[in-house]
Structure formats: structure tokens, C-alpha cells
């Protein structure tokens, strides 16, 4: 399992420091992979909600299984391309993108209006 984030998170503690991460918030995790960060968000924003999206169906399946195993109810995963997000405007308080692999992702998404309009 890819878990580079999980290896560094024990010492970083940077998620709780992000001002958008508060109980009751709704967060979008783009390129969630196996869901390591997504499930951490779920704990931090509960009773809020986290949605993890990934273009790779296998990753979405793994992330869903991981959340199920951990008994986390306030997280959902779905297959989606960050450049064609299937959400209405202002669906989230914040969107998180980290460690998204550049070779399969056009750089345009970083500045995309789509992401900006979601929050
Ligand atoms: C290196 S993994 C990072 C996973 C997770 N963010 C983490 O840090 O643990 C990058 C993920 O981005 C996903 N990805 C790449 N391009 C994407 C796109 N255009 N839309 C959605 N997901 C994408 C890949 O499928 C992969 O699961």
C-alpha cells in the first residue's frame, strides 16, 4: 500500500493546523489514493464529512475497504477526475490536493475554477 503520508504524519501534525479542519466541516480530498489522509480528515471534522475522489477505481475500492475496516462512517469515496469534478458549487468548505501524481494529471487543475467554485 502507498502510505508515504502515513509515515510522515506522526511527526508533522499538519492536518489539525489547517484552519479549515474543524468539527462539522465538509472537506474534499482530491487524489485520495488509499485514503490515509482522507480517514484522518474524517476524525478531525466529525460530525462533518469527508469525500475522497480518485481517478483510479482500484484506489477507491481500497480506500472504501479501509474506512469500512476502521469503522469510519463520515467518509465517502468515489471515482472522479479532479478536472471534471461531479459536485455542485459550494459543496465543500475546503478542498485538499496533495501528492497527486503529475504524469496523469494536467497541471491546469491547480488553478482550475472548478476547484475554486466548490468551496
Ligand atoms: C501518490 S497518490 C497520493 C494519495 C494520497 N493523496 C496520499 O497522499 O496518501 C496520487 C493519487 O492521485 C490520483 N490521481 C492522479 N491523477 C488524478 C486525477 N486527474 N483525478 C483524480 N485522482 C488522480 C492517483 O490515482 C493516485 O491515487
Q: Keyphrases for this structure?
A:
single chain, 119 residues, alpha/beta, Rossmann fold, 5 helices, 36% helix, globular, binds S-adenosylmethionine
Verbal overview:
With 119 residues, the protein is an alpha/beta fold. It has one domain: 3-Layer(aba) Sandwich (Rossmann fold). It is 36% helix and 17% strand. It is built from 5 helices and 4 strands; from the N terminus they run H-H-E-H-E-H-E-E-H. It has helices spanning 4-12, 14-17, 36-45, 57-70, 113-118; strands at residues 26-30, 49-54, 75-79, 94-97. Strands 3-2-1-4 form a 4-stranded parallel beta sheet, with helices on one face. It starts with a helix and ends with a helix. It binds S-adenosylmethionine. S-adenosylmethionine binds next to helix 3 and strand 2.
- Small molecules bound in the structure, each named once: S-adenosylmethionine
Largest sheet: 4 strands, parallel
Q: What percentage of the residues does DSSP assign to strands (E)?
A: 15-25%
Radius of gyration: 13 Å
CATH topology name, in short, is Rossmann fold
Which whole number gives the mean pLDDT?
80
User: What characteristic shape results from the CA principal axes?
Assistant: globular
SSE map:
Layout: H1 4-12, H2 14-17, E1 26-30, H3 36-45, E2 49-54, H4 57-70, E3 75-79, E4 94-97, H5 113-118
Parallel strand pairs: 1-2, 1-4, 2-3
The protein binds S-adenosylmethionine (SAM).
Amino acid at each position: 500500500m502507498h502510505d508515504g503520508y502515513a509515515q510522515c504524519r506522526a511527526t508533522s501534525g499538519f492536518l489539525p493546523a489547517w484552519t479549515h479542519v474543524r468539527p462539522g466541516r465538509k472537506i474534499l480530498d482530491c487524489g485520495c489514493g488509499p485514503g490515509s489522509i482522507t480517514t484522518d480528515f474524517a476524525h478531525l471534522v466529525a460530525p462533518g464529512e469527508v469525500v475522497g475522489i480518485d481517478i483510479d477505481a482500484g484506489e477507491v475500492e481500497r480506500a472504501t475497504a479501509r474506512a469500512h475496516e476502521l469503522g469510519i462512517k463520515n467518509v465517502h469515496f468515489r471515482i472522479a477526475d479532479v478536472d471534471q469534478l461531479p459536485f455542485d458549487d459550494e459543496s465543500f468548505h475546503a478542498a485538499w490536493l496533495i501528492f497527486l501524481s503529475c504524469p496523469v494529471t494536467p497541471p491546469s487543475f491547480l488553478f482550475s475554477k472548478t476547484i475554486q467554485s466548490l468551496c
